[in-house]
Amino acid sequence: MSLGFLFAMSLPALVAALFFLAMFERFVRGKKKGMPLSTAGIGELGATFEQGKRHELEFRKEERQLRDEEGDGAPPRSSVDLEAGTAVVKVPSQRQAG
User: Fold this and answer.
1) Which of 1, 17, 59, 86 lies 20 to 30 Å from 26, alpha-carbon distance?
2) 88: Cβ contacts below 8 Å, ≥ 6 apart
3) What pTM value is reported for the model?
4) What integer pLDDT is reported at residue 95 of this predicted model?
5) pLDDT value at position 57?
6) How far apart are CA 30 and CA 27, in angstroms?
7) What b/e sequence results for 53-86 when a residue is b if at least 16 CB atoms lie within 10 Å of its CB, and e otherwise?
8) 53-66: per-residue pLDDT in tens?
9) How many CB atoms lie within 10 A of CB 39?
10) Cβ partners under 8 Å of residue 20, min gap 6
11) What average pLDDT does the segment 64-92 reach?
C-alpha cells in the first residue's frame, strides 16, 4: 500500500475533504437556500465521536418534519383579509395601576 492511499483512507483526509467541499460550496452556491452538503457531512462526523450530537441531529430531523398548524398557538389578535385588502389589528388595552 502506498502512503497516499493510507492518507486518503484516514480521518484527517476526511476532514480536509469536508473543508475543501465547504469552501467550494461557499464560492459556487453563494447564499442559496438549503443545507450545504459539507454541513451535513461535518455534522455526521461530529456525531461519530460525540453521542449527544447524534441526539441533536435526530431532534432537528424530527422538528423539520413536524407541521405548525395555525390553530395551535394563542388566539389571534389580528387578521388579514387578502381578497378584501383589509387588515384588522386589535391592540390589547393597558391596565391602569390602582
Assistant:
1) 59
2) 78, 79, 80, 81
3) 0.44
4) 65
5) 80
6) 6
7) eeeeeeeeeeeeeeeeeeeeeeeeeeeeeeeeee
8) 778 888 888 888 87
9) 14
10) none
11) 75
**Do the Cβ atoms of 58 and 68 come closer than 8 Å?**
no
What's the sign of the alpha-carbon dihedral 38, 44, 50, 54? positive
**DSSP secondary structure string, the chain?**
--HHHHHHTSHHHHHHHHHHHHHHHHHHHTT-SS--HHHHHHHHHHHHH-HHHHHHHHHHHHHHHS---GGGSSPPSEEEETTTTEEEE-PPPPPPP-
> What distance, in Å, lies between the first and last C-alpha atoms of the chain?
86
Give the position of cell 443545507.
Answer: 35
Grid coordinates belonging to 18 = 469536508
